[in-house]
């Protein structure tokens, strides 16, 4: 069987990280090849290189055996490579047909020949077994159908190689089954498919081969028939020295936060938080593990008053805090380290000292009545800089001039210094260097030792395992499992995060342990 | 010593772009002057110096002219401040025009009340102007904050509504003197003292400077200013910090309108002494946009920018006498705004440099 | 005057007053459909109004005057296009700068060309002679007699614009660029080119609108004659849900508000002139409040597009 795509020695560097390091990847004709890895492993980067969105710093790409320099998406399309992005590139108020033919529209004189477009799309759609109506408007059809439209877009342009980026991330179980069938049909028609995913179940069901990426490097390329979910989990997550923190044994406290059956909708009316319930006790760190996009961000937004919920109960130490504004929630004793430090956590144009009291600016001693007391604010900020080891020439520079790590330290400093009863930390160490990570971890554990309740939401499994006393797994907007730290393993969590159940994989779990 | 040098350098950097914009605008305007005089391009340099000297002479040559120039500067301080407050909160209050006019109307009405002591009458005029302008500005502010309606279109509509309401009152009701198409001259007790009888310049300009300092204090030393600027810089970060975005938008527009209204009241109290029928929008507010943009919305900077544009406006008569169409003044102003509004040119090149580093690095 | 005559006169006045708004409104539709907010329509109308008069004055031919207006409008719009699309400047500030520049420039030119301030000389107006068989039609004939060429061109352009935007390949691409420029980009469409085209076209149309105001109604240019119509046109675009036909109806509504001012006497309604003058502006505000949320701009309207930003 010939290799339709061959990538040799691909290296791609971004400022601060090596996204792909000397990666070899090939695709055989008619196969479905999965690219597997955790968030940030480099899978999307590699495929963006193949699709011409990025240029590799080193390495070569061969299409059908011929060396090619892929200059951009249009060029990739001409070479027969099509990509279905994780975030769809569809015009919401256009019809399916209009979206598919955009850029290659059939015309009759100067008039757009929509009739022919619809006809062409219908023919194509039937050929591959898609149940798509060309006249439907994109915003009216389901996400699964929208994905089919994206696939049809590529096929309409004659793609022979299809790259699907996290295609099952937004699909329901039935739609995932449908996708499996579609992929089989595509293979029958001689197409080759690359699937980017982190979901182990789908890998086992849908692929012929799987290549695993970890931190930019390949850790293995295996035939799916010859491997198991746990072997893949191991190659994906890796055997690293588990970064353990010296933790005092937990002093079990009282129930601090109680969330019951929380439901919140997104703009499309879908329940993105779907009946979520959990509790956090004082003196503990509850880690919420989950793959990005399963509702954890929205959950935190509801908790902090930045998003309205549909229904449910939230109470802090018995006091109802459902539906309160951010300021009220802050005054109840909840602090929040947000996941997007530049968008939410800081006013980038403000100086450090101005940022250090964001949310506290109306309280004494930082202001008296209307007048701000900048002397007190600057002292407060200087103490924070010292206590939290924030590297900065002074407290006057604007927050935008700090490195990411120091920005995060400033935010953590501010939130921890508020002395909250509940500290919510969302991706608190995203994009930070080892030293900063250690530091933030230390401070989170300190808060827990002081008897505070800490809700840790993170995409990094290591972090969850290192810090948490209890671990909850979020999937599809719900908490699907809560367990004590001593009962949790990477494999178990990986399976739960991927939507599997421990019952089904009991055998694999037992064998692995 | 080093700290002083650093802050001077920082200060210079800040005004470098506005100053460059003015210089470029004047250079471009010289072409228009040459065209107007049907002169030759080779006389560019002499035309340039001519332009400068005429502007200078027209504004400051004699004592009388210098004081007259102050007349032109005074309203611009207020409208500049009004625009600056809105800009700082991320809003565009193009309605300063109408808010200023409503302030004028309020003063024109209050000023006619007889039998009041000057120490009561003048503050009353100012309060009247403040309320009139404040209400007029809060309306588009409210519509934007609560309903999300673009404040630019609404403010502009309110400018024209103000124009017509004022004309209606002056021409068709007892508020105006029928044959003069204006409100009656205000009481002496309502007139703010003038400096001398060389011109109509009055202590309103000092009030303006005081307000500039007040606005500076408000924006940088109070919780109100902290929140307004946060909303203008990053509304999402402000929301996270517990700041109520809608409330602050309304405050910004109301405050902006109030200051514009005070400016209008002082214009009547000190310079015009009455409100005349408006044929078209007078332009104080639009000039204020130029002032605020040039000053980069810094209240103290507004004083200097007001001096610049006030001087330009004041020299228009003299320009006319020298065969330079006074409209050159509006052109210079418009070109300055085009360049100021696009200090993105600087950002554009900065970004290009950054990208080069990433691609190569 | 009997009622029918009055109504016919009112309709004719409404159409005549609506026409400058319709042209500017169509300009707004094209610009915003591609994603660029054009607050500068006012300044472009001013420029167009002036140049229509100037062109007619210079060549004694009002048709050439119209051409002048269109070209001037396109020239000014290209400044706005450059600032907003290439330089990615704030579109509202750029539009305001265009407004001020257009007004200043027209002011300057009056002085230079006509050597007086405030308004130009009167120029030859656009001839409008219809064949007898049309004017002899009862009622309709009287109505059509009272219009001018601009009205007819405006109505035709509404239909043409509607066709282009919804039935041609170019229209599909314009709409895609305004809704989801990244998607259009990935399909090989040059977002910048499409936006430039639309903004410059909006300049041509707004310039034509200015011409309709000056030589179409009173063949003279007077400072302040545009008095906010560019902004009313924008409100009409919002009211008309960013569609040519909807915008036209909105403009007719606003034109009606203005026509009332002229024809009110004949109805026996004797409100002061200023009250009528306020109608269009108050109406605009009410319309905006009433229709907020019920009409939606193109999704990427007002947002500068940066290629490659993911």
Write the layout of secondary structure elements.
The complex is a heterotrimer of chains A (513), B (361) and C (310).
Chain A: E1 3-14, E2 17-28, E3 32-36, H1 43-50, E4 58-63, E5 66-68, H2 73-78, E6 81-84, H3 96-101, E7 107-108, E8 111-112, H4 114-127, H5 143-156, E9 161-165, H6 173-188, E10 192-197, H7 200-206, E11 209-214, E12 217-223, H8 229-237, E13 255-265, E14 271-281, E15 285-289, H9 296-303, E16 311-316, E17 319-320, H10 326-331, E18 334-337, H11 341-345, H12 352-356, E19 367-368, E20 371-372, H13 374-387, H14 404-417, E21 422-426, H15 434-449, E22 453-458, H16 461-467, E23 470-475, E24 478-484, H17 490-497, H18 506-512
Parallel strand pairs in A: 3-10, 3-11, 6-9, 9-10, 15-22, 15-23, 18-21, 21-22
Antiparallel strand pairs in A: 1-2, 1-4, 4-5, 7-8, 11-12, 13-14, 13-16, 16-17, 19-20, 23-24
Helix pairs in contact in A: 14-15
Chain B: H1 2-37, H2 44-60, H3 63-88, H4 96-110, H5 118-147, H6 151-172, H7 204-221, H8 223-233, H9 235-240, H10 245-272, H11 284-294, H12 299-314, H13 316-321, H14 328-341, H15 344-360
Helix pairs in contact in B: 1-2, 1-14, 2-3, 3-7, 3-10, 3-11, 3-12, 4-5, 4-6, 4-10, 4-11, 5-6, 5-10, 7-8, 7-12, 8-10, 11-12, 11-14
Chain C: H1 3-33, H2 41-59, H3 62-86, H4 91-114, H5 132-135, H6 140-145, H7 149-167, H8 169-179, H9 181-186, H10 191-217, H11 229-239, H12 244-267, H13 273-291
Helix pairs in contact in C: 1-7, 1-10, 1-11, 1-12, 2-3, 2-4, 2-10, 2-11, 3-4, 3-10, 7-8, 11-12, 11-13, 12-13
| CATH class category name of the largest domain in chain A | Alpha Beta
Give the number of helices of chain A: 18
What proportion of the residues of chain C is helical, as a percent range? over 70%
Overall number of strands of chain A = 24
CATH class descriptor name of chain C: Mainly Alpha
- CATH architecture tag of chain C: Orthogonal Bundle
General description of the model:
The complex is a heterotrimer of chains A (513), B (361) and C (310). Chain A is built from 18 helices and 24 strands. Chain A is of the alpha/beta class. Chain A has two domains: 235 residues, Rossmann fold (3-Layer(aba) Sandwich), CATH 3.40.50.300; 258 residues, P-loop containing nucleotide triphosphate hydrolases (Rossmann fold), CATH 3.40.50.300. In chain A, helix 6 links the parallel strand 9 and strand 10. In chain A, helix 14 packs parallel to helix 15. The two termini of chain A are 38 Å apart. Chain B is mostly helical and 361 residues long. Chain B has one domain: ABC transporter involved in vitamin B12 uptake, BtuC (Orthogonal Bundle), CATH 1.10.3470. Chain B contains 15 helices and no strands. In chain B, 55% of the residues are buried. Chain C has a single domain, classed as ABC transporter involved in vitamin B12 uptake, BtuC, CATH 1.10.3470. In chain C, 73% of the residues lie in helices and 0% in strands. Chain C contains 13 helices and no strands. In chain C, helix 1 crosses helix 7 and helix 2 packs parallel to helix 4. Classes of the chains: A alpha/beta (513), B mainly alpha (361), C mainly alpha (310). The interface between B and C is large, with 48 and 45 residues.
């Amino acid at each position: 069987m010939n290799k339709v795509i061959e990538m040799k020695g691909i290296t791609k560097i971004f400022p601060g990280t090596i996204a792909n390091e000397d990666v070899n990847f090939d695709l055989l004709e008619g196969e479905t090849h999965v690219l597997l890895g955790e968030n940030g492993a480099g899978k999307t980067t590699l495929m963006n290189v193949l699709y011409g969105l990025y240029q590799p710093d080193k390495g070569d790409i061969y299409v059908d055996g011929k060396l090619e320099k892929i200059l951009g998406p249009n060029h990739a399309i001409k070479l027969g490579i099509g990509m279905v992005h994780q975030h769809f590139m569809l015009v919401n108020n256009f019809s399916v047909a209009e979206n598919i033919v955009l850029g290659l529209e059939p015309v009759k004189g100067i008039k757009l020949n929509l009739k022919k477009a619809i006809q062409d799309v219908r023919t194509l759609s039937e050929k591959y077994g898609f149940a798509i109506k060309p006249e439907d408007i994109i915003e009216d059809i389901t996400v699964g159908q929208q994905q089919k439209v994206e696939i049809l877009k590529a096929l309409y342009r004659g793609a022979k190689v299809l790259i699907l980026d996290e295609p099952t991330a937004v699909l329901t179980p039935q739609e995932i089954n449908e996708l499996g069938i579609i992929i089989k049909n595509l293979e029958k028609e001689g197409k080759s498919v690359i699937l980017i995913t982190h979901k182990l179940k789908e890998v086992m069901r849908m692929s012929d081969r799987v290549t695993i990426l970890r931190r930019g490097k390949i850790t293995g390329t295996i035939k799916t028939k010859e491997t198991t979910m746990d072997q893949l989990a191991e190659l994906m997550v890796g055997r690293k020295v588990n970064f353990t923190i010296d933790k005092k044994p937990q002093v079990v406290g009282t129930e601090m936060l109680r969330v019951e059956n929380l439901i919140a909708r997104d703009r499309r009316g879908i329940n993105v938080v779907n009946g979520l319930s959990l509790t956090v006790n004082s003196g503990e760190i509850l880690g919420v593990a989950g793959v990005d996009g399963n509702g954890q961000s929205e959950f935190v937004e509801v908790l902090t008053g930045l998003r309205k919920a549909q229904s449910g109960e939230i109470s802090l130490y018995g006091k109802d805090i459902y539906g309160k504004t951010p300021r009220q929630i802050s005054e109840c004793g909840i602090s929040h380290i947000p996941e997007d430090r530049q968008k939410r956590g800081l006013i980038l144009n403000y100086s450090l000292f101005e940022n250090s009291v964001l949310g506290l600016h109306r309280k004494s001693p930082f202001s008296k009545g209307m007048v701000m007391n900048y002397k007190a604010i600057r002292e407060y900020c200087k103490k924070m800089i010292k206590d939290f080891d924030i590297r900065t020439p002074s407290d006057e520079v604007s927050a935008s001039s700090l490195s990411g790590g120091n920005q995060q330290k400033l935010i953590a400093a501010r939130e921890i210094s508020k002395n909250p009863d509940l500290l919510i930390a969302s991706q608190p160490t995203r994009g930070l260097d080892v030293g900063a990570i250690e530091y933030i971890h230390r401070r989170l554990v300190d808060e827990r030792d002081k008897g505070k309740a800490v809700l840790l939401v993170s995409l990094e499994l290591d972090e969850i395992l290192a810090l948490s006393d209890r671990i909850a797994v979020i999937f599809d907007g719900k908490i699907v499992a809560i367990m004590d730290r001593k009962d949790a393993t990477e494999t178990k969590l990986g399976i739960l995060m991927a939507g599997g159940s421990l019952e089904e994989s009991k055998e694999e779990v037992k064998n692995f342990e | 010593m080093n700290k002083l040098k650093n802050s001077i350098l920082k200060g210079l950097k800040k005004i470098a772009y506005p100053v460059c914009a003015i210089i470029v605008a004047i250079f471009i305007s010289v072409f228009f002057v040459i065209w107007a005089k049907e002169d030759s391009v080779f006389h560019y340099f002499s035309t340039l110096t001519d332009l400068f000297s005429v502007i200078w002479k027209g504004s400051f040559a004699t004592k009388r002219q210098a004081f007259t120039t102050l007349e032109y500067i005074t309203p611009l301080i207020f409208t500049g401040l009004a625009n600056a407050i809105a800009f700082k909160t991320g809003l565009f209050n193009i309605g300063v025009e109408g808010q200023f006019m409503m302030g004028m109307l309020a003063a024109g009405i209050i000023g006619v009340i007889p039998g009041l002591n000057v120490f009561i009458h003048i503050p009353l005029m100012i309060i009247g102007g403040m309320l009139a302008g404040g209400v007029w500005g809060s309306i588009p502010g409210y519509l934007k904050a609560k309903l999300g309606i673009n404040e630019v279109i609404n403010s502009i509509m309110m400018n024209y509504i103000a124009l017509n309401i004022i004309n209606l009152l002056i021409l068709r009701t007892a508020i105006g003197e029928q044959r003069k198409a204006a409100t009656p001259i205000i009481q002496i007790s309502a007139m703010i003292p003038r400096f001398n009888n060389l011109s109509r310049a009055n202590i309103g300009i000092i009030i303006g400077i005081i307000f500039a300092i007040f606005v500076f204090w408000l924006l940088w030393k109070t919780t109100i200013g902290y929140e307004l600027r946060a909303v203008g810089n990053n509304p999402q970060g402000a929301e996270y910090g517990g700041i109520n975005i809608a409330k602050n938008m309304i405050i910004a527009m109301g405050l902006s309108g109030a200051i514009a209204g005070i400016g209008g009241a002082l214009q009547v109290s000190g310079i015009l002494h009455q409100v005349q029928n408006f044929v078209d929008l007078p332009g104080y507010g639009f000039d204020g946009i130029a002032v605020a943009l040039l000053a980069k919305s810094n209240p103290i900077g507004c004083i200097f920018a007001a001096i610049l544009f006030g001087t330009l406006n004041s020299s228009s008569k003299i320009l006319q006498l020298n065969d330079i169409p006074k409209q050159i003044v509006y052109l210079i102003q418009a070109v300055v705004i085009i360049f100021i509004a696009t200090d993105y040119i600087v950002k554009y090149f900065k970004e290009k440099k950054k990208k080069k580093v990433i691609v190569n690095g | 005057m009997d009622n029918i005559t009055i109504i016919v006169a009112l309709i004719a006045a409404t159409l005549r007053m609506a026409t400058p708004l319709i042209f500017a409104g169509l300009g707004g539709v094209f610009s915003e459909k591609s994603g660029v907010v054009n607050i500068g329509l006012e300044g472009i109308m001013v420029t167009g109004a002036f140049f229509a008069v100037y062109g007619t004055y210079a060549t004694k031919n009002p048709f050439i005057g119209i051409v002048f207006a269109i070209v001037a409008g396109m020239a000014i719009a290209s400044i706005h296009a450059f600032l907003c699309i290439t330089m990615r400047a704030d579109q509202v500030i750029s539009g305001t700068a265009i407004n001020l520049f257009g007004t200043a420039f027209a002011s300057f030119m009056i002085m230079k060309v006509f050597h007086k301030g405030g308004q130009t000389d009167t120029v030859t107006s656009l001839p409008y002679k219809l064949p007898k068989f049309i004017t002899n039609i009862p009622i309709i004939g009287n109505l059509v007699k009272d219009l001018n060429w601009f009205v007819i061109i405006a109505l035709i352009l509404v239909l043409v614009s509607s066709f282009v935007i919804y039935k041609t390949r170019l229209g599909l691409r314009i709409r895609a660029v305004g809704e989801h420029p990244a998607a259009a980009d990935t399909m090989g469409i040059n977002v910048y080119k499409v936006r430039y085209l639309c903004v410059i076209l909006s300049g041509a149309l707004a310039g034509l609108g200015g011409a309709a105001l000056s030589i179409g109604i009173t063949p003279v240019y007077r400072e302040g004659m545009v008095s906010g119509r560019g902004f009313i046109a924008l409100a009409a675009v919002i009211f008309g849900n960013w569609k040519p036909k909807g915008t036209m109806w909105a403009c007719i509504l606003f034109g009606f508000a203005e026509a009332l001012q002229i024809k009110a006497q004949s109805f026996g309604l004797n409100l002061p002139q200023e009250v009528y003058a306020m109608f269009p502006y108050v109406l605009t505000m009410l319309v905006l409040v009433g229709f907020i949320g019920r009409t939606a701009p193109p999704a990427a309207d007002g947002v500068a597009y940066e290629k490659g930003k993911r």
